[in-house]
Design a protein that fits this description.
About 35% of the residues lie in helices and about 10% in strands. The chain has about 280 residues and is α+β, with helices and mostly antiparallel strands. A four-stranded antiparallel β-sheet has the order 1-4-5-6, with no helix packed on it. A two-stranded antiparallel sheet has the order 2-3. A hairpin with a 4-residue loop joins strand 4 and strand 5.
Length: about 280
Amino acid sequence: MTAGCGRTSDAVVPGAEGPDPKGPTSASASGVSPLPVRALHREAERARGWLESGAWRPDAADAEAAARVLARLTAPLPRRGAAWTRARAVDRDRRLQRIWRSAVHHLDAGAVSPPAAALLAAVARAYVPWYGTPNPPPAAAPRYPVPSGSAAPEGAAAHGAATRDAADRPEAPPTDAGEALLPGLTDVFTALAAPAPAPAGTGARHPAAVPWRTRYAGRLRHYGRPARHVWTADTFRCPGCSNADGPWTVVCDWRRVTLGCPCGVTTDRHGLTFSEVFLVLPDA
């Protein structure tokens, strides 16, 4: 299944904004850039409205995907004593990393409806700083662009990923900011995982997809995993002129993505997943 996103609004996810009760370790106090949550604010509020109005009655695939993500959102941290402060910090980041991985897994599986795909993509974007933290992916795995000010994957050099000068590498992802999203997301995914009973004689209902269009200058990579800890990576090239750098005209209806090349060729036969397109684009 292929990738995409939606349009901008000022809606917010409850818990995503406001003062951080944990104090000086917050993203703002530490100088870490805010999480990329514009898409998440938009899609969460849109999903909440559709679910409350009955415009979206999720089918079994949507409810199952939501239940799996919900389990990650509500997973308790392991119990540890006072001497386990450092392990506790890793536990916190691991929980957020698992949310990211679950969202991407269900997004790219291709079984959910367009509104569910939009919501999962927005969750994946918000939690992209944790795709390699605290457990970096194996060598040659996807390397998504972590938002400016967020951490590079811990131990990335040991797994063959490109490294930067230590002076330019932030120390940690904005864990407090990531955890602040959990209450609001839990509410949305609880409603999605356990929808209200549909009236007699009616079944699943999906709102109309919101098409999306943008331009992207850069390379798009398709990743394969033929075996455990074995990855392949191919750069998409225009079938007409072999251009690999765009600028691409990206059009998405949340069921497929089409890529337009400056030479005039447009194709949806690129093999890219939703995450491989959506997560490299600017948050908008």
